[in-house]
Amino acid sequence: MKKTKKAHASEQKEAKKTSSKSSKPNSGNSNKREPVPIPPLEDFLEAGAHFGHRTSRWHPNMERYLYDVRNGVHIIDIIKSMKKLKKALAAIQEAADQGRIMIVGTKGQASTAVREIAQKVGAYYIDSRWPGGLFTNFDVMKKSLRRLRELEEDIITADLHRTKKEVIMMKREDDRLNRLYKGIKLMEKLPKLVIIIDTKIEQNAVREAKICDIPVVALVDSNSNPDLIDYPVPANDDSIKSIRLFIELFGKAIKGGRRANALITLRKDYEAKLSRMRKQHEQEVARKKAMEEAELARLQALKEGKSVSDGGRVVRVVKSGKAEKTEADKSKTAKESGKAADKAKEVKKSDKKDKKEDKATKTKKAKKAKKAKK
Predict the structure, then answer these.
(1) C-alpha torsion 84→90→91→92, nearest 10
(2) CA–CA dist 157, 285 (Å, integer)
(3) How confident is the model over 204-216, as a mean pLDDT?
(4) Which of 115, 158, 213, 280 is most solvent-facing, going by the fewest CB within 10 Å?
């Protein structure tokens, strides 16, 4: 495992030559993309890309990529990593012209960098949890992706024709699906190549990619098996600086690819469509609110007896028997009501007298009839 200083120095010179060659422009073929320039060795050392795991956790197949053991920790040979990295970047560039690329990194140190770089360069990404059967059962997974897109469109106008409970349930389902499929919701076909951060954690992704014959580029630490990967890049997959350094290099290889640019425009068109639907919905809600306010104002004016414009005509509404009265009108009505009350009293008195007289006559007649019988 240990090497002489001369052998290692010669490998360093070769690595510098390869990096300098890759940085030169390719003037021979205009259609072929220029290779991604590889940073100098010092940048990898500063990022801690050479640190592996403890010797008790190593994988025997990684022995050929290890340089030394220090303080019980394996040291990865960065010179060999740079050579492997060059091959991996070339494979990524070629795949980016032929199809889509997917980046998988669900661990906390990698998820943010994966999401940012994938959105920037035009790649699919998985940053929360690997959805089982994404590759091997893709026909069924497409239904979930289609459901997510339909749900995002329905939520915009849901408050017009659905209850509050239904809207809340729809938003919960949208959040759940977005956590899983946000980076792949526009995916219609399997990717041409998969980039994986930490093959130990993403074992399911590696297994499904192998079943579907999808090439894999992966950061391989000292505790992983490089033989399972098509383009292994031996490096530290736990350090945030190391992960970001390699993901940025992978992003440069993806950027500029024909299919990558198409995905960027597709995402922009989809977001523009959603924003346009939101704007139309807001305008419709504002229009309905204005109509309701106008109708309430019209009804209020009708109650108060004010003039209301109706289709260009001015209508004066006067309520019969309830119009406002002047003081003179009020006094006249008071006098008339007083006279009517006096008349009513006189009529009542006369009615009482008539009733008494009728009773008296009836009693007299009754007495006379009794005497006649006797």
Answers:
(1) 110
(2) 10
(3) 94
(4) 213
Measured between alpha carbons, how far is residue 162 from residues 170, 226, 280, 283, 285 in Å? 10, 53, 18, 18, 14
Residue 95, classed as helix, strand or coil, is helix
- Interatomic CA distance for residues 74 and 68, integer angstroms: 6
Structure-block tokens of residue 206: 């590696």
Structure tokens that stand for 330 in this block: 């009020």
pTM of the model: 0.70
Percent of the chain with pLDDT over 70: 83
What is the Cα 95 distance to its own chain's centre?
29
Q: What is the pLDDT of residue 160?
A: 79
Cβ pair 125, 101 in contact under 8 A: no
Give the residues across from 307 on adjacent strands.
316
**Checking DSSP bridges between strand 313-316 and strand 124-126, what pairing results, if any?**
unpaired
What confidence tier does 214 reach under pLDDT thresholds 50, 70, 90? very high
Alpha helices in 255-315 (DSSP H): 258-304
